[in-house]
């Protein structure tokens, strides 16, 4: 295996390990974000803490990790693609890797964002259905008479009203809608992930460069971690309105009285009219709390070089 192949393999391992560790740590907050973004008003959850407490009380501790299996399965290729693609485009577009070129860094981030949606879109499609199932159960308890008329994922089978599984949802979507069913909301995902990457990667690179150590040839773990957290928080909050639209569009099963959206513009229009401009920032705090440590851990692992160490061990 050539040095270039080893380098790519190490990057993929780093991205995968970082994704697994990060998701395990912050998944309950991500679940709260999804439920807060999907609810109309504050009829069920008053905020992140209230959501997590009610979820733990009603569904148990493991209820806060509903949908985590999908994320843990697919986050490895997703994060690996995102981080490796950004490095690939940076090396391709920048003649001197050490030279700061904001335009090229933003273009590299754009490329990384476009690449990752191959995995991100179906992953979040399945994850959102599982995360929101608990909120819908509470919603339907208050509207039991409307249970029979509430929408199912595809066929209206009673099993989907209980505890849907990722396998069942994926199979039903593939059977009834084909591959396009798993990629519903692809446009909204691209609108969120491309701007996120354009903001995140250049900001991280410049923040991390401030802690560059000439002796070691890289920034310290602590500096990389903090840089990842800061860049992740800024990028996450900046694209929260797009994340809200994506979540609403990708949620297949709706509660009584909740809107169905035909696309991004329709969703934005209805959200603005019915819930006001503040609705576009639903879950912003949760999102920052999820993304900050997630990307802090990712960049920390990446710069420690766990992938390189693993490959060296097996040489």
TrEMBL record:
It is a multi-pass membrane protein. Keywords: Membrane, Mitochondrion, Mitochondrion inner membrane, Phosphoprotein, Repeat, Symport, Transmembrane, Transmembrane helix, Transport. Belongs to the mitochondrial carrier (TC 2.A.29) family. GO terms for cellular component: mitochondrial inner membrane. Responsible for the transport of glutamate from the cytosol into the mitochondrial matrix with the concomitant import of a proton (symport system). It catalyses: L-glutamate(in) + H(+)(in) = L-glutamate(out) + H(+)(out). It comes from Orycteropus afer afer. Solcar repeats lie at residues 6-92, 100-210, 219-308. It is found in: Mitochondrion inner membrane. Its main location: mitochondrion. The keyword Lipid metabolism does not apply. This is Mitochondrial glutamate carrier 2. One of its GO terms (molecular function) is L-aspartate transmembrane transporter activity. GO terms for biological process: malate-aspartate shuttle. The chain crosses the membrane at residues 12-32.
């Amino acid at each position: 295996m050539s040095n270039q192949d080893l380098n790519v393999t190490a990057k993929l391992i780093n991205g995968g390990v970082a994704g697994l560790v990060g998701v395990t740590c912050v998944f309950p907050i991500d679940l709260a974000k999804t439920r807060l973004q999907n609810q109309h008003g504050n009829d069920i959850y008053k905020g992140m803490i209230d959501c997590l407490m009610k979820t733990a009380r009603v569904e148990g501790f493991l209820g806060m990790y509903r949908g985590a299996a999908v994320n843990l399965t697919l986050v490895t290729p997703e994060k690996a693609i995102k981080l490796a693609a950004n490095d690939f485009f940076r090396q391709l577009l920048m003649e001197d890797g050490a030279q700061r070129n904001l335009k090229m860094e933003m273009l590299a981030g754009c490329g990384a964002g476009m690449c990752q949606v191959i995995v991100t879109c179906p992953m979040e499609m399945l994850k959102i259905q599982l995360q929101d199932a608990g909120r819908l159960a509470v919603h339907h308890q208050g509207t039991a008479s409307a249970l029979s008329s509430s929408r199912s994922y595809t066929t209206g089978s009673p099993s989907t009203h209980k505890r849907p599984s990722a396998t069942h949802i994926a199979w039903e979507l593939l059977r009834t809608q084909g591959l396009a069913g798993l990629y519903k909301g692809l446009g909204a995902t691209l609108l969120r992930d491309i701007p996120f990457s354009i903001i995140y990667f250049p900001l991280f690179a410049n923040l991390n460069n401030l802690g560059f150590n000439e002796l070691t040839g890289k920034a310290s773990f602590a500096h990389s971690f903090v840089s990842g957290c800061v860049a992740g928080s800024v990028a996450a909050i900046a694209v929260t309105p797009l994340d809200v639209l994506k979540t609403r569009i990708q949620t297949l099963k709706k509660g009584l009285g909740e809107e169905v959206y035909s696309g991004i513009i329709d969703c934005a229009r209805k959200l603005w009219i019915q819930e006001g401009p503040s609705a576009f920032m639903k879950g912003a705090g949760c999102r920052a709390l999820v993304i900050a440590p997630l990307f802090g851990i990712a960049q920390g692992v990446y710069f420690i070089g766990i992938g390189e160490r693993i490959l060296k061990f097996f040489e």
